[in-house]
Design goal:
It is found in: Cell membrane. Helix 8 (247-257) links the parallel strand 10 (240-244) and strand 11. The chain contains 14 helices and 14 strands. It folds into two domains: 2-184 and 368-384, Glycogen Phosphorylase B (Rossmann fold); 187-363, Rossmann fold (3-Layer(aba) Sandwich). The protein is an alpha/beta fold and 385 residues long. Helix 1 (31-47) crosses helix 14 (370-384). The strands form two sheets. The chain has an eight-stranded mixed β-sheet, sandwiched between helices. It has a six-stranded parallel β-sheet with strand order 11-10-9-12-13-14, sandwiched between helices. The structure holds uridine-diphosphate-N-acetylglucosamine. Residues 30-33, 35, 143-144, 188, 214, 216-218, 244, 270-271, 274, 289-292, 295, 308, 311, 315-316 line the site of uridine-diphosphate-N-acetylglucosamine. The site of uridine-diphosphate-N-acetylglucosamine has 25 residues, from helix 1, helix 10 and helix 11.
Length: 385
Amino acid sequence: MQSNKKPANRKLAPNGVIGPQRIIISGGGTGGHIFPAIAIANALKKLNPQHEILFVGALGRMEMEKVPAAGYQIIGLDIQGIQRGSIWKNVMFPVKLLKSVRKALTIIKDFKPNAVVGVGGYASGPLLYAASLKGIPYLIQEQNSYAGVTNKWLSKKAETICVAFDGMGQFFPQDKIIKTGNPVRKESVDIANKRISSLELLKLSTAKKTILITGGSLGAGTLNKSVMAGLDKLIAADVQVIWQTGKYYYKDIVEKLGENYHPNIRIMEFLNRMDLAYAAADVIISRAGAGTIAELCIIKKPVILVPSPNVAEDHQTKNALALVQTNAAMLVADRDAEEKLIDKVLELLKDAAKRKTLGDNIGKLALPNADEVIAKEVIQITIDN
Ligand SMILES: CC(=O)N[C@H]1[C@@H](OP(=O)(O)OP(=O)(O)OC[C@H]2O[C@@H](n3ccc(=O)[nH]c3=O)[C@H](O)[C@@H]2O)O[C@H](CO)[C@@H](O)[C@@H]1O
């Protein structure tokens, strides 16, 4: 791993193995923040099952369901993001922020953490700020190639900042940065020897080519429109589709098409077993969220990325270009997707050599042990302080 930290200044924990520590992991909002957090927690538990881990999230957000499902305890703060375009929707923001910092201080007082980890998302800000007030060391894990205002501000007092992309010195103090890659849940990329069983489980044919379409943890309107526009072509080509619509779009699509629209097309709201979906796929169409990209590099399959244009500083395009520049993925711009995406994927399905090249090249970018490296860094800051 590339590190800018000076080893001479650090007392190293032997492989991160020390007695039980108490760690708070804060953040969430979307899968892109939650699943790396769970991966770090799992890696900490692997280092020492006695480590005690508490999650802090935002009430009403996805983490309040996904974290307990992964076997961890979570406390919710009543916090939301600043909503663009309406002053009225933000009237309560300062009050909620203040209340959340107060609650974060109480959580820290009660739980007495040795260290805090922030993965980004609404709850991360108040919790890390409270940690800084109490002198608790904290680590930031930044998934994207672009850092938001809150993480930049919090980075000043962070012990360590774990990143996944080069060039993050423009946002964070250079001497705190370690390039670890993004942590992924091991079970979501464990695809070996699962192709046939997962196709059978999905009641799909093992003899036909299969396209996986994933719009990230919330789904993607553009991908759904593109599939809708290309359904006739997909059916005519006799290829299979695992179509993750996302929670907000599922009902509408199923109302229009019916749940069992066609034997070749599986319409799913959310994929609880990414490993099975990845294993079944011959090609993948995806948004360019940082967590999904980290997984795609590990599973080494040919990918067409359609970056979301609705994210800060267009960071998904930057995430995607890091792959496209080394011929490790294809890119279709959001504005072109409805017209071109399905033609592109059908072309790729006919071109075995191109699929092999893309799969080989994306595999070269994998950083599969990010979770373990970060977990050791978390333990390290409990020792350094
Ligand atoms: C719209 C938006 O704000 N997107 C951001 C969000 O993406 P988003 O929340 O979509 O996150 P990512 O693409 O990074 O990761 C998605 C995660 O959800 C999992 N998954 C996805 C679909 C599914 O059906 N089942 C499932 O388990 C994937 O395996 C992956 O682990 O966080 C990312 C990481 O900060 C950012 O790069 C994205 O720009």
